[in-house]
Amino acid sequence: MNAGGETVLVVGGGGREHALCWKLAQSPEVGTVLCAPGNAGTGTEPGVENVPVQDDDLPGLVALARDRKVDLVVIGPERPLVMGLTDELEKAGIAVFGPSKAAAELEGSKAYSKGLMKRAGVPTAAFETFTNAHAAADWISGRSEQALVVKADGLAAGKGVIVCDTRDEAMDAVRRVLADREFGEAGARAVVEEKLVGEEASVLAIVDGATIVPLPAAQDHKAAHDGDRGPNTGGMGAYSPARLVHERRMQQVVEQVLIPTVHRMQRDGRPFRGILYAGLMFTRRGPMVLEFNARFGDPEVQPLLMRMSSDLYPLLKAAAAGKLEDAAPPTWDDRAAVCVVMASEGYPGDYETGKTIRGLPEAADLPDTEVFHAGTKFGTPDADGREQVVTAGGRVLGVTALGEDVTDAKRRAYEAVRRIRWEGAWCRTDIADKGR
């Protein structure tokens, strides 16, 4: 970090943003990292300053970037991207890493995303789009018994996907999405698609509208409980590298998914600049896209940044300027990294907040281990005047460790998990078992 270096604003307050702040603060080109609104982890991260502006306050964020003479804004969550924060910052002459509102529709609308894949020839599941529950139910009832997936069209915090093994389950799912509006306005439309069978992995790439820099593959764990059982969550853990995506498969993903998507968006007048995240199912027919996201994955970014041995900042700055081809490619630690998410009791359903977290310093003492905060805030100081960290969300911490291989990284991550405690804390116990 350079005392006279550039100022970066990271927008968001979750585990992804803590990891980004941690990595950007290490850059010799960066002097100050601001995080809006941040959390208790970013608030204690060396070189990082929390600023109390919410990530959906677009005018406030533009004013903050202008007032603090920010050199680059890095947008973490999907919501401000879909709301058009990139467009507002660019109007104010402020450099920003993140797609425009039009390009972020790739994540903001599953119907748009599936249509784009169809036009671009990107392999994905067969699908239909509906706005009416009765029409969707009629279509489902006219099909042979087949496993289907029902998706709310809009943003639903990673929870608007219902996997259905029977026709009755699918008809119930479209009722929940389109009639009952279980996911609010995100369910104004629904995509119903065939259920793909295979193993999942994520490939993220830094894109500047034309040039694509793929990052190593990671594997997320969406289901709440061990053995991939239970409801979908925002992600209960991740690891990298993913043995599933060997060199030949990565080449397939680049050629069949990333390149045609980026080129199609250019032709459609929606050039994509930011992180293109492909959620993939590796099937007997090859890699097929489950979904696209328009930002770093959380918790995939935690193990990815732990493994990145080069400077992240020049890459993001070059991509924002449309000059990614001039940037040095990233380099990577050969070791593996595993992130285990510790969550509040009740998540992904209702949960309580304000539980005091203990053991954070003891976990931080372990070598090659970082505890990235997601749902935390500062509580009332203790009797000795020391600041207390309390829970403030469902996913609370992303405990991340490097190891010689995936097995070693898992062991180290869970060793740190065992040092941390609060009332109702829980986690999956099988993160990264697929990678061993």
Automatic annotation (TrEMBL):
Keyword hit for Nucleotide-binding: yes
Superkingdom of origin: Bacteria
ATP-grasp domain: residues covered: 114-321
InterPro entries on file: ATP-grasp (IPR011761), ATP_grasp_subdomain_1 (IPR013815), PreATP-grasp_dom_sf (IPR016185), PRibGlycinamid_synth_ATP-grasp (IPR020561), PRibGlycinamide_synth (IPR000115), PRibGlycinamide_synth_C-dom (IPR020560), PRibGlycinamide_synth_C_sf (IPR037123), PRibGlycinamide_synth_CS (IPR020559)
Keywords: ATP-binding, Ligase, Manganese, Metal-binding, Nucleotide-binding, Purine biosynthesis
A GO molecular-function annotation: phosphoribosylamine-glycine ligase activity
Catalysed conversion reaction: 5-phospho-beta-D-ribosylamine + glycine + ATP = N(1)-(5-phospho-beta-D-ribosyl)glycinamide + ADP + phosphate + H(+)
SUPFAM superfamilies, alphabetized: Glutathione synthetase ATP-binding domain-like (SSF56059), PreATP-grasp domain (SSF52440), Rudiment single hybrid motif (SSF51246)
Pathway: Purine metabolism; IMP biosynthesis via de novo pathway; N(1)-(5-phospho-D-ribosyl)glycinamide from 5-phospho-alpha-D-ribose 1-diphosphate: step 2/2
Catalytic activity, EC: 6.3.4.13
Required cofactor names: Mg(2+); Mn(2+)
GO annotation, biological process: 'de novo' IMP biosynthetic process; purine nucleobase biosynthetic process
Gene3D superfamilies the record matches: 3.40.50.20, ATP-grasp fold, A domain (3.30.1490.20), ATP-grasp fold, B domain (3.30.470.20), Phosphoribosylglycinamide synthetase, C-terminal domain (3.90.600.10)
Similarity remark: Belongs to the GARS family.
NCBIfam families named among the record's database cross-references: purD
Protein name listed in UniProt: Phosphoribosylamine--glycine ligase
Organism: Alienimonas californiensis
